[in-house]
Amino acid sequence: MDNRKYLPFIIIGIIAFVVLLSAFNRIFYRIEASERAVIFKTLSGELEKQNIIGPGWHVKAPWNEKYVYEVSESKIEETMDVLDKNGLSISVDVTIRFHPKYDAIGTIQENFRGDYIQRLVIPEARSTVRQVMGRYTAEEIYSTKRPEVEASIKEETRQVLGAPGNEVEMKSLLIRSIKLPEQIKTAIENKLKQEQEALAYEFRLDREKSEAERKRIAAEGEAQANKIINSSLTDELLKMRGIEATMNIANSPNSKVIVIGGADGGLPLILNGN
């Protein structure tokens, strides 16, 4: 049996299968849960920006193109050199977490052709970091105003990336490290140390002044109390207190000898008291 006569049919069948398989992949496509897509109509040249395609299986004309975007959170890490307010070079390490807005990937595709990270996120983040840090001195960035600098960078980067036409939502921006030239860093740390020592010295002075004032007030109060007591101790009062003490002692069970009127001022003398 000559099978060669079937060879053209086999070749045609293989070609047809390949064409059908290719057509299947061009017609049917799947979008994952972390993805979104938009369709570009090749014949009309129209990008369906408003028709955002969600997860699942979908069908399209084989001549149309689909653009798929990962919409789960992405992360980039950048190291850049910036200048402070006085022109001093500072090295900064930054981490940015972001994702494209789900309902705006058509706009992103139209404006950045899918490469929005390199064309938008990285350049704008770098530009904002440089602009914000250029408003502060190295000392402020490194120590006294670091939280303020970080907050300004985060807010301004978020506004730029999320502006109409950019449509990227920044989740967070973290400044991992700020590196100064070693001599500048040492000078700043020495200055801060001296300032802390000066504050500690002032605190000790204030505490000692407060303690001295407390003692002065206590001494004045004690002197005033003694003055009042002395002015109130008359001979009649002392005699009355002596008589009361004598009566209390006489009623106690201890043995004693009491001589009435034997002391100065007529106060009793107590002998052999236990």
From TrEMBL:
Q: Tell me the ranges covered by the Band domain, including all copies.
A: 26-192
Chief localization class? membrane
Query: How does this protein sit in the membrane?
Result: Single-pass membrane protein
Transmembrane stretches, start-end: 6-24
Alphabetical list of SUPFAM superfamilies matching this protein: Band 7/SPFH domain
Q: Recite the UniProt keywords alphabetically.
A: Membrane, Transmembrane, Transmembrane helix
The cellular location(s) given in this protein's UniProt record come to: Membrane
Task: Write down any Gene Ontology CC term.
Answer: membrane
Q: Which domain of life is it from?
A: Bacteria
UniProt-listed InterPro entries? Band_7, Band_7/SPFH_dom_sf, Prohibitin
Mind telling me which PANTHER family this protein's record contains? PROHIBITIN, PROHIBITIN 1
Output this protein's name. SPFH domain, Band 7 family protein
Q: Which organism is it from?
A: Ekhidna lutea
